[in-house]
Each structure stands twice: as C-alpha cells, then as structure tokens.
Write a structure and sequence with these properties.
This protein is mainly alpha-helical. It has a domain at 8-43. It has three helices and two strands. A two-stranded antiparallel ribbon has the order 1-2. It is flat, with a radius of gyration of 26 Å.
Length: 98
C-alpha cells in the first residue's frame, strides 16, 4: 500500500495553526507513519465486546422547578461589577480579526 499524500498546509489552515515551512516538510514525512500506527491499533482485537451503556443522554424530569429570576437580584448584588442586569467580567478572548 502506498503512503497517502498529506497536505499539511491545508490541515494547518483548518486547525488554525501557524506551522513553519521546515516543520511542514517534517510533518509530511511523519504523518503517514502516525496514520499507519493508528490503523494498527484500530485493527487490534481486545478479545471482548466494547462496554457501551444501554442508555445515553438521559435527563431526569425537573420535579420542582425554581421560579425564573427568583435569585437574580441576590446574584447581581453579590457580583463585584455589573452592567445593567448582567455581571461584568474582564474580556478574555480578543475579537480582533486577522
């Protein structure tokens, strides 16, 4: 089986990674070997069935719902800073466009 050609530049763009040209050449050589290793692991037999739960994403009924907005004033009064009816926080993520 021939090794697949991996377009590292396209992968880096999709992942929003800045990869130097030297590393791209290195990754083009390494990624097919990594994929082959993953293929080997996937083909390995563990000798038993996968343990999957019978139920998934099950939610319970909310028996005693709390009145909407019941604690809003208390929470806002406890906040260190606020803007209107919202808690004010420091900006963590920049919205600067590239």
């Amino acid at each position: 089986m021939t090794q697949p050609k991996v377009d590292v530049a396209a992968l880096a763009k999709l992942a929003r990674l800045d990869i130097p040209e030297g590393e791209m050449v290195q990754l083009e050589k390494e990624i097919p070997a990594i994929l082959k290793f993953v293929e080997t692991i996937q083909a390995a037999s563990t000798g038993r069935e996968a343990n999957t739960p019978a139920l998934r994403n099950v939610m319970r009924a909310d028996e005693n719902p709390i009145e909407s907005g019941k604690y809003t004033k208390t929470l806002l009064d406890a906040a260190p800073a606020r803007e209107g009816n919202r808690v004010a926080v420091k900006q963590v993520i920049s919205r600067k466009k590239k």
